Amino acid sequence: MSERSPTAPAVSPVSPGYRRYALSVLLLIYILNFLDRQIVAILAEPIKNDLHLADWQLGLMTGLAFALFYTVLGIPIARVAETGNRPRIIAAAAGAWSLFTIACGFAQNFVQLVLCRVGVGIGEAGCTPPAHSLISDYTPREKRASALAFYALGTPIGGLIGMALGGVIADAYGWRMAFLVAGAPGVIMAIVAWTTLREPRSKLAADLAARRAARPSLKQAFAEIRSKRTFWLIAFAAAIKAFIGYGAAAFLAPFFFRNHAAELTLLADDFGLGLTGFLGITLGIVLGLTGAVGTYMGGYLADRFGAKDLRAYVSIPAVSTLLGIPFYIFGLLADSAVTALILFAFPPILNTLWYGPGYAAVQGLVRPETRATATAVLLFLINLIGLGLGPLGVGAVSDLISGPMGFGAAEGVRWSLMLFILFGALASALFWMARSSIREEMVS
């Protein structure tokens, strides 16, 4: 293993109490990040009916429109974050994406909605790369996977709240109001981050000039990242998982609307809810709570077993990814909505186990001065392939099976999701291949 970078902190630059506070603030911001990103999933069918959209347009609006600028801007923002004030970058980003989420509620047609989603993507590009870098400076290495997994809880929790909140508000007040309510809290958290989060670099370097001198150039940073075989195996495995995950997230609600509407309507009536509200709450609980369990477990297991063998950082995702595939397939084929929901509760546990170990491995594979850039490159691949192409791909294949192949809308979305889920086997294989190089390439 290579020597620790000379500018890496030997001890955490903040107290344990402040670290817990800062991690909580960053978690809340990331929850809102994912809420604003994913609320469109439960609103997709009402938007489709109101604006008369095709499935490929839903996929474009849900995925590529958001991901295009999100991926492109992530790297330059990360470069600023390597020496800039990371809390203020995160705060400005949160304010921007929240205002664009609110603007989605005023969109009158497909083009306007797509442009608003582009704006959400531009804002959210400034969140995770500086947040990962900040958390890695706040946290000792032996606790890094758990800290990053705690931050990653924003993914399932944000998805849970987005599904539940979006569905209930859409039933009561329409899909436009759901966007307005979702965007407002982010403005408040932007102010909290700006005024209370600390930039610890003053304790990690003599002055800003020294920090800038230590920072590798963009060419050097890319050269460092490019030399890491483990990084690329993790990155492409994670991108494939995102390709599946974002595609499924965008079309699970339409799948239930089209295949199990009658049964779900009866269940919703028993609870005094509308169909959209009931499905939003149910999917939020089934996918969000189980995803939170998996995310937390992944960080815990990685810190525990990674201390003994660094290969655990990739072994855990490899095995869990493969185990999740059959549950999805049987859920899609189930005749009962209740059975399908029960089966769909297992894949989120297994498929989110990679967050803590995967992100921690990426932070450890490069020097501290390259961490934000490494995260941005990772997210570039995850979001361009996963978020950009996943929903669009599922939607396009669904349209093909539904129309030209003559299977209808219900079977189209079912079999499109089925085909995409099988790519999980490839992601599992890539994680497993990384076992052979991770121990030699870890540096910090």
Automatic annotation (TrEMBL):
Topology in the lipid bilayer: Multi-pass membrane protein
Pfam families registered for this protein in UniProt: MFS_1 (PF07690)
Keyword entries, A-Z: Membrane, Transmembrane, Transmembrane helix, Transport
Annotated compartments: Membrane
Family annotation (PROSITE patterns): MFS
TM spans (from-to): 21-44, 56-78, 148-169, 175-194, 231-257, 277-298, 310-330, 336-355, 376-395, 415-434
GO MF annotations in UniProt: transmembrane transporter activity
Residue ranges annotated for the Major facilitator superfamily (MFS) profile domain, each copy included: 22-439
GO cellular component, one term: membrane
Domain of life: Bacteria
UniProt-recorded name of the protein: MFS family permease
Source organism: Sphingobium boeckii
